[in-house]
Amino acid sequence: MRVVIQENYENMSLWAARYIAGKINAHREARPFVLGLPTGSSPIGVYRELARMNRAGEVSFSNVVTFNMDEYVGLPHEHDQSYWYFMHDNFFNHLVDMKPENINILNGMAEDPEAECARYEAKIASYGGIDLFMGGIGVDGHIAFNEPFTSLCSRTGLRSLTTDTRIVNSRFFGNDPEAVPAQALSVGVGTVTDSREVLILINGHNKARALAATVEGGVSQKWTCSALQLHNGAIIACDEAACGELTVDTYKYFLDIEKKERL
Ligand code: GLP
């Protein structure tokens, strides 16, 4: 696992955006570059920088296919808290050459959620899998909506949200946890770890325990993010604020090794 520690949120976002753009630009195959994407506050800086680069002609999305991680059950596209709305508002609407037909987001209004999730997995497979999955992380270590004790080999499916997550996400729903949908459709932990590369953004003091569990803890379904330890290409991009629960040794190790990466 690679852990890239940046001074603050801004630098973490710039680093991650440039990393992703570099991967898209280096993709020389005729098949599209397949990019997994998250919602949440963590990726907003990355989306802003990628959109800037796209408008400046520094990266093209014309041969990129995207798959989003998750979507609330029961929120239509036009609901301003649906992840469909979030992605268009914060990212896709700001790109000059993203093809709408290349955007894939789970349909939280599907009549048959299990069929919708099976369709999604099959569509990912039809592209030959995901090249790079960018993700965020919940304060309880969830990746996508894979709450504690979700199987580390889970696939795309229907998930129930924990009370903790509904409380945390209630800031977007008038501070009312009951207004937060109780269920979501989400890619599985296994769907994420099947990707050729995984890049997880972890920023802020409130994510410090989750970062320590991801990097230093044992592999455990209690912290679904810890499954990344079994992935061969996992990168954590984080800020200083999120490092508060790492041991000094771990913190120094990753700063040292990244310094050598740049030499
Ligand atoms: C939600 C999403 C996750 C996301 C998490 C963290 O629960 N389903 O995919 O990683 O929020 O969000 P934030 O980046 O706002 O802290």
Question: What would you say this structure looks like, in words?
Answer:
This protein has 263 residues and is of the alpha/beta class. The protein has a single domain, classed as 3-Layer(aba) Sandwich (Rossmann fold), CATH 3.40.50.1360. The protein is built from eight helices and ten strands. It has helices at residues 9-26, 44-55, 83-90, 113-126, 163-169, 189-193, 208-215, 248-262; strands at 2-6, 33-37, 64-68, 70-72, 103-104, 132-135, 157-160, 183-186, 197-202, 234-239. The strands form two sheets. It has a seven-stranded parallel sheet with strand order 1-10-9-6-2-3-5, with helices on both faces. A three-stranded antiparallel sheet has the order 4-8-7. α7 links the parallel β9 (197-202) and β10. α1 crosses α2 (44-55). It is globular, with a radius of gyration of 17 Å. The two termini are 19 Å apart. The model has no long low-confidence stretch (mean pLDDT 96). Bound molecules: 2-amino-2-deoxy-6-O-phosphono-alpha-D-glucopyranose (GLP). 2-amino-2-deoxy-6-O-phosphono-alpha-D-glucopyranose binds next to α5. The site of 2-amino-2-deoxy-6-O-phosphono-alpha-D-glucopyranose has 14 residues, from α5.
